[in-house]
Amino acid sequence: MTDWNRRQWIATAAGITGLASIENMALAFDANAFGQKRSGTPKANRPRSKMKITKFMATLVASPDFALLNSWNVHDTHFLRSILEIETADGYKGIAEIGGGQIKELEAASQVVLGKDPFEIEYFRRNINNIHAFGAVETACLDLIGKVINRRVVDLLGGAYREAQPFSAYIFFVMPTPNGPDYSTPELAAKQFVEFNQKYGFTSCKFKGGVLHPNKEIEALQIMREKMPKAKLRIDPNAAWSVETSVRVAKAIEPLDMEYYEDPTPTLDGMAAVRKQTKIPLATNMVVTRMEHIKPAIQKGSVDIVLLDNHYMGGLNNVRYWAAICEAMGWGCSGHSNNHLGISMAIMTHMNCAISRVEYHADTHYPWTTQDIIKGPMLQFKDGKMALPDAPGLGVEIDPDKFAALQENVKKFSNRHDLLKKWDPNYPLNNHIIRW
Ligand code: GKR
Ligand code: MG
Questions:
Q1: Is CATH 3.90.380.10 what the domain over 164-395 is classified as, yes or no?
Q2: The one catalytic residue among 75, 116, 132, 336
């Protein structure tokens, strides 16, 4: 075939498939049409440059926290987070944030990562033994890669299914402390939701239960429903209730048109027993957290909704596999969180925006954060949503002065156990038990 005939053939094929700019397409497909002087079409054997990670730093930080209560404790004076920074020989940087107390695990992971290319994520997954450390490494690599190719992390996760992620208010009972707020009654918890709605625009509420007697928590939900007739309501007592109590509470809150009921009771069997006796969908971040939980959860009929979390589910890419499995199982997906800074806020926004299956408003503790690590102002919720940051990678950067201040805070960290024991001598500190 002559050169001209080949170009005609390609142009015709391109026309049939509806491709525009036929002449350009012909040029692009036909690598040898105009000899070696032509530009724009890479040769198949073009050498690819590899990058090399030469710096890996893991740092513990602490940010002040409120006296939030859950079924086994009061939050400490500060919450701890581990910050990972990586850098390549050519000066590209990536960052990540995971839970506190992961520094040793991250340092062990540095042995696997140093000297490697940030694109070798599957190699890292197979060779880093700690799931949290792998999650941090993967996130930092994606942040770095995003900066190299000038795209956002969400684009590396399948693209932005939505540009802003809706989040829910995370409502806690807060123990009164000398300088802190007091949200220790059902009325005050309901007031907190109204305040979060007014300040951030949240229209759904995850209410942390398992703290006061279940009747008080039912009362709090009833007041919330009165004050916010259209809101989506959820309660999460973190498995502090027996099956019997969980069913009794379910019957009492069914008329409130609850969106879901999160981990009322422990174990897949316990959840299955509750699920048989209520119309409210059951959600979890406690009984379906690893792949091996999926089969028994389906067999027993334990849950309807799984909360996705990149930390314990093996990183951002793995969470996408989780979402696909949830879709196959007929489970809905929401998003889980613990106390976190702005880096995690950005990570969760990229992750949830990439996953079409996340049809519920995801959790976030960010409104409780007062001292952040990121450059510039804290990330802002608008109408209950967090928009994807615009800059490449995660779109947030570490502010060195804020970082130094958060490192100093680690020395100030202490628990509030004495105060809690004074406030409620029967509180089962650190002891995760069925309380009612
Ligand atoms: O910070 O008190 C808390 C929460 O209870 C958190 O630790 C849980 O992991 O938010 C979480 C949950 O949904 O169970
Ligand atoms: Mg939960």
A1: no
A2: 336
